[in-house]
Amino acid sequence: KEDLQIEAQKILDENAQEGGFTIPSKGLYPFQWKWDSGFIAIGLAHYDMKRAQQEISSLLDAQWENGFIPHIVFHNESDSYFPGPDFHQSFLHPLASKKYKTTGLTQPPVLGFVLEKMLEISKNASSVMSFIKTHIDKVYENHRYFYTNRDIHNEGLVYIYHNWESGTDNSPVWDEIWETVDAPQYTFQRKDTTHVDASQRPSDKEYNLYVHVIEIAKKYQYDDQKIAALSPFLVQDPLFNAMLIRSNEALMNLYKRIGGNQEKIDYLTHHQEKSKARFNEKLFDIDLNAYIYFDLRNNKPIRHITSSSFTPLYAGIPSKDRAEKLIQVLLDRFGGEDQYLCASFDPTSELYNPKKYWRGPIWMNLNWLLYQGLKRYEYEALAERVKNESIELITSSGFKEYFDARKAIQEASGRGYGGDNFSWSAALFIDLLH
Ligand code: DGY
C-alpha cells in the first residue's frame, strides 16, 4: 500500500500543470475541471498543502462576477478534447471571466467541504486558516449565486440545466428526458472515443443532445432566467443539492471558526434549514425508500436509484429512520456478496451497464462520499467495507477512471475502465489510506 501511495502521488505530479492546477487524465481531460479539482485538493493536502491551495485558487481565479464557477477552465490550449475552449463562448455572458475561456456549465458544489477537509488534514492549521480566510467568500458567493439564480420556485433546491452539470454524465436517469428532446443533427468531431473504447463512453446520439443543450444556452447568452424558461433539460439532482447542503454546513463551521461574518452565517443557516426540509419532502420516494430526481421541465420525479441517491447521508439530510431504510436499499440492490460497492446505477435495473461510464461502473469520488456518509450515521462496518473495497479495486486494477462492480468478471485488463492515471482516483486513494 505504501508503494501504491507513492504511485498515486506520482500520478498527481505527472498530471500537474503550469498555473498550479491538475488535469484529471492526460489526453482525455486536458484542462481543469471543477469538482475534480476539489477531490484532487483533498489528496494533495496530505503531502503538499501548498499545491492543494493552488489547486483551489487556480479554479477560483476563473470565477465569474456573479459568483458562478465554471465546470472547465481552459487555462491552456489542447486539441485532444471536444467540446474545447472555442466551442463554449462563455464571453457571451456579460459577467463571465475576462481572464480565462471557460464553459458556461457548472458542476456539483464541493468546494465548501473541500476547504473544511483541508483544514482537518492540515498539521499547520494557522497557515491553512489564512488561506481559507482569503478564499471562503468566493465559495460563499458561489452559493449565493445558486440560491439567487437557480432556485426558481424559491424552495431551497437548485436546478442543473445540463447532464454535464450533474457530474454523472450519461446516467440512465437522463434517458427519459432525452426522449422528449428534438435536436437537429450537429456536425462535430468527438475526441473522447479516440482515447477510450467507445463501448465505455456515451453514444454519438447522446453527444448530439449534449451539444444541443449548450447551443440553446449559447443562443440566450447563458442567461439563467432564459435557461430556466427554455432549456429542455432542467433537473433537481440529489447529488448536486446534497453537495450544496454539505458545503453550506462546512462554510457555516468555517465562518464560526473565523469569527464575525454573522450576516453570512444567518444567510446560510436560513437556506440550510429550508433546503434540507424541502429535499426530504420532494426528493425522497417513499415507495422506493430512496432519494431520487425531479424533472422540472416535465414536472415529474425521475424514479431511479443511483449512487447519487446515497449522498444525502454525507450532508446529514435523512433522519436516522430514513437513513436505515436507505441503507437497506443500498445493501439489497447494490451490496450483494457478488458485488463491490458501489455501482453508479441500480444493478437490478435493466438499464444497468457495468462498463459504460455513469450507467453502472463504480467511481471513487462517489465511493468516498458514501464512505463519509456512512461514517456520519455511524455505520462503521459498512463504511469500512466501502473503504476496503475501494482500496482493493485500485490495488488490483490501477488508478482507472471507473471500475466494474461485478466480482465474477475478470477481464484481462483488470476491472478498470475509461481513462488511465485518473487524478481523483489517486487523490481519494491517498485520503482513504489515512
Ligand atoms: C466529459 O467530457 O466526459 C466530461 O465529463 C464533461 O465534463
UniProtKB/TrEMBL annotation:
Q: Name one Pfam family in it.
A: MGH1-like_GH
Domain of life according to the entry = Bacteria
Q: Which key words are in the record?
A: Glycosidase, Hydrolase
**Domain Mannosylglycerate hydrolase MGH1-like glycoside hydrolase: residue ranges:** 29-425
Tell me its family.
Answer: Belongs to the glycosyl hydrolase 63 family.
The GO molecular function terms of this record are: hydrolase activity, acting on glycosyl bonds
InterPro entries for this protein: 6-hairpin_glycosidase_sf (IPR008928), 6hp_glycosidase-like_sf (IPR012341), Glycoside_hydrolase_63 (IPR004888), MGH1-like_GH (IPR054491)
The molecule here is called: Trehalase family glycosidase
| PANTHER family named in the record | MANNOSYL-OLIGOSACCHARIDE GLUCOSIDASE (PTHR10412)
